[in-house]
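Please predict the structure of the following assembly.
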Amino acid sequence: MTDFWSKEEARLERQTDEGAQELRATTREVVLAGGGMWPQDDLGDTMIINMGPQHPSTHGVLRLMMELDGEDVLRIKPVIGYLHTGMEKTGEELTYVQGTTNVTRMDYASNFANELVYSMAVERLLDVEVPPRAVWIRMMMCELSRMSSHLLFQATNGMDMGAVSMLLYGWREREEVLRLFEYITGLRMNCNYIRPGGVAADLPDGWEQRVLDVCDLVAAGVADYDEMLTQNPIWLERTVGLGVITTEECLELSITGPILRSTGFAWDLRKAQPYLAYDDVDFDTIYTTNGDVYDRYRIRLFEILESAKIVRQCVQKMPAGDYRVQDKKLTPPPRSRIDESMEALIHHFKLFTEGFKVPAGETYVAVESPRGEIGCYMVSDGSGKPVRMHIRGPSFYNLQSIGPMGSDSLVADAVAIVSSIDPILGEVDR
Amino acid sequence: MADDTAREEDHEPGASGGEPVADEPVSAPVADEVAAAVVARFAGSVFVESHGQSVVYVDRAVMADVAMLLRDEEQFTMLVDTVVVDHLLDGSRVSVDGVVPERFEVVVNFLSHARNRRIRIVAEVPAADPTVPSLTPIYPGANFAERESYDLFGITFEGHPDLTRILMPDDWHGHPLRKDDAAARVPVTFKGDPSPR
């Protein structure tokens, strides 16, 4: 260990502070397997197997180092970074107007949570309050996004367990939600719809009926899954009592979201620390007590229905008014004004070239994404770009649960356990 | 040090100076009882309120002790996040009375489920000696986050069981999120050139 550190320090000393990277060392002796000192001891009868990073059941480019004794997994260590694209560094180069385009690509299965937490952090630094209609639109889109994310989980989770038809069913319903996103925002996945100051555009004509139709369709789909899987003896055999984690382990390992709720701890930021208008809608926090793969499946299944419930209330209670703050420094003028007003043209030009300035300060905003607590730590120095834009990805922390869940399981069960964590590697690696 | 006006207005009541000693008037106590406990226990800690959130600046040497206090006595059940900020190029940095600004800031977010509240602990870390005590032995959930901070900023967390790169390749030079490590400035590899790996 000390030998490694002295070499590492020698390398760091050689690095210039000018920012240029020196050519990398040609010797390979300091290169370690998979970013760790593990395993250090003599293996004996066991062996190390890599699962991934291209394995289809690892949900992207996750690599698992597993120490096996026969087919028993003794230890699992996740190795990540294969999808690291420096999005936090990119976030420092983009203005606050452009920033949502960046963060929406992190958790690509529930992009609205990313956009929301980024926009809320910027708004808190600006001390801006968004109009009620924008708040309700945001809430509706976030819940639709939760539905689409959990449908994706149902599809991939079913496939990982061997219920391959679930892949088709899950995709069928999710497709309808994505079509709705395209109809409302213009894009299916990385919508860039929630922006600092409100949302990008008002809801299109006839949105109420389409949203309600999608809710009905998804609810029917959930009823199908419920009938097909929840009491299915093969499914129960495969999932009950597998990958058990306790509340204490979850809290110690900073694990949030459905995994924490599956251990009997009903912690949901929408209830505990309400944001948007979650105070004004009626919904339940779903939680179970066993903390196994089956419970995590059930929680995500029934959270779809709770989200549908919130979306229906949003349709019912959607207030009229502005869908974004009427502040010319913060949100662009309407397209029609640009043709007739020079000031509108100037504001539009300035906004999209320079962005707006945010007062110096720092803040942390957290919301409940489908995977747990997603947070944004934003530091501003008063210029048009953040000094630091950090996203606390719930998947990144939730991956730490593989240790306690996956030790002393079978290889086939490790697949089920990874699937039940529902990691999105775009968010893990950022 | 240019004070930010907006922030000063917001936080004047809390920023009551560096030392919680008796010559400070007792009439302006720290409004937050957890922060008050931290400030009372560790000399040199400074409490400020930032956009409605409690922030305590502590000496980096006592980080682990502060975490122990929060976990064992104040019911802070979860370490939510560990973030490092590089203030090298920060033009108008917010200054806090009683805190000597350094290049790096290690920011740790704690959450108490029982009390349903958060607190942020900030430690200033000089560029010449970028080390802080690891909180992983106290809150195991800090494991990945501290590895990430080490990887991207080069902050050494002393006492971390496995402080290795997590996002960047193992043979990477430098720490990409440092402000003097320019984005995308990677040597170009030409055909026939020996591979960097």
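Chain A touches chain B through 67 residues (CB under 8 Å). Confidence is low (pLDDT under 50) at residues 14-37 of chain A.
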